[in-house]
Amino acid sequence: NAGVMQNPRHLVRRRGQEARLRCSPMKGHSHVYWYRQLPEEGLKFMVYLQKENIIDESGMPKERFSAEFPKEGPSILRIQQVVRGDSAAYFCASSPPGVRGSYEQYFGPGTRLTVT
Amino acid sequence: AQSVTQPDIHITVSEGASLELRCNYSYGATPYLFWYVQSPGQGLQLLLKYFSGDTLVQGIKGFEAEFKRSQSSFNLRKPSVHWSDAAEYFCALAGSGGSNYKLTFGKGTLLTVNP
Known about the structure:
- The complex is a heterodimer.
- By secondary structure, chain A is mainly β.
- Chain A contains no helices and 11 strands.
- The radius of gyration of chain A is 13 Å and the shape is globular.
- Chain B starts with a strand and ends with a strand.
């Protein structure tokens, strides 16, 4: 059973460009979470999605950031008009369905975004 | 608001020595607690978790952690460290309320193992 897949692993963007980060959850998992890790910080929750639904986006910056988890295909975290402060590692996690499932979050290897 | 504090940014131990990584939390009720390990360039791997019941929990790779409500702590221990344990360790908390899926992480403790 493959783990959570994220691509690309490394992404370099110039200021003002768009960044698209992809996450494929583990097989059988229907919940996806995105976290951001700034340098020398712990991970911070961004958004929680289920298929075709955003459940909680309280950790997402109000502008330029969006996330989706379509019926088919991976979850996408999109950052428009990137700025240097967006440079971070972005981790995706998935969990199985069920009440307690949300505690069992399995993390992908992350995408390290560098904005130049 | 809930929070997790890992007081030690960096710890160095010799291979074969015992290890204890500290974690303190702030939460109004009994939290759900986790320890994750992150190797360089890798994602986070779950070492162990505490939901309820026995306050001493066993995890993978020979790790264990003890939940102490009176001290608001959940310290991670290993009796004998191996060189492959060198990594960054994160303590995390999930509230038992409605937003229990939001993991709150500490800033991590970097473990260096000397031969």
